[in-house]
Amino acid sequence: MAVTLGLRMEEMIFNLADTHLFFNDLEECDQVHIDDVSSDDNGQDLSTYSFATDGFHAAASSANLCLPTGVRGGVDWMRKLAFRYRRVKELYNTYKNNVGGLLGPAKRDAWLQLRAEIEGLTDSWLTNALKSLSIISTRSNCVNVLVTTTQLIPALAKILLYSLGGAFPIENIYSATKIGKESCFERIMQRFGRKVVYVVIGDGVEEEQAAKKDIIINSLSDKLDLDNITRSQQ
């Protein structure tokens, strides 16, 4: 039953990522952090911008611009890449407390039903986790930070569908797909400094090692084992 529910949620995650978060365009252009290409953004108004016809996807596919070692493209192409990540950030911040509004009525009902079934099967683990995360996020001197081995775009979709957006600001989410968790932990320490108290929550060796080094990530690893989802598993 858990596997079945997990697969249903996985399908919903990729559907949201493809439909609203440009995963078809960004799958091969994955970033560690939402702002990693923001320096290429010229701030253009995107209210009437046509992502579907700007030629980004065709150029990326034909020129192999997104490589494992990093993104390589011209100024115009990099700007279009940055536009997509800016739009993803806007959508996340708009719907982080109301993903149902992004899904639409039919998919919203299916999502609510699935969430209810997961809660029933797991003795309301998500409700309890959200309560803990909310307590942390309301403290003036505390923040929640999340590191995941899932690519950034489907990870954001997953966070929205599990209603975790309110607990994790998008600036505090890191994808370790390209660089590994250790490097993500180091980036976080550079950002917040080494004179703060770090607490690591996770279920793997990397989190255990990080905890021993006084590093933090408030990493919620869910019981349906969706942390490592990739499109090949879809």
Q: How is the topology of this model organized?
A:
Blueprint: H1 2-20, H2 23-26, H3 56-63, E1 66-67, E2 70-71, H4 75-95, H5 99-103, H6 105-121, H7 125-138, E3 146-148, H8 152-161, E4 173-175, H9 180-192, E5 200-201, H10 205-212, E6 217-218
Parallel strand pairs: 3-4, 5-6
Antiparallel strand pairs: 1-2
Helix pairs in contact: 1-6, 1-8
What would you note in describing this structure?
The chain has 234 residues and is mainly α. Helices cover 51% and strands 6% of the residues. The chain is built from 10 helices and 6 strands, in the order αααββααααβαβαβαβ. It has helices spanning 2-20, 23-26, 56-63, 75-95, 99-103, 105-121, 125-138, 152-161, 180-192, 205-212; strands at residues 66-67, 70-71, 146-148, 173-175, 200-201, 217-218. The strands form 3 sheets. Strands 1-2 form a two-stranded antiparallel ribbon. Helix 1 (2-20) runs antiparallel to helix 6 (105-121) and helix 1 (2-20) packs across helix 8. The protein is globular, with a radius of gyration of 18 Å. Residues 216-234 have low confidence and may be disordered.
Question: Summarize this, please?
Answer:
This protein is mainly alpha-helical and 234 residues long. It is built from 10 helices and 6 strands.
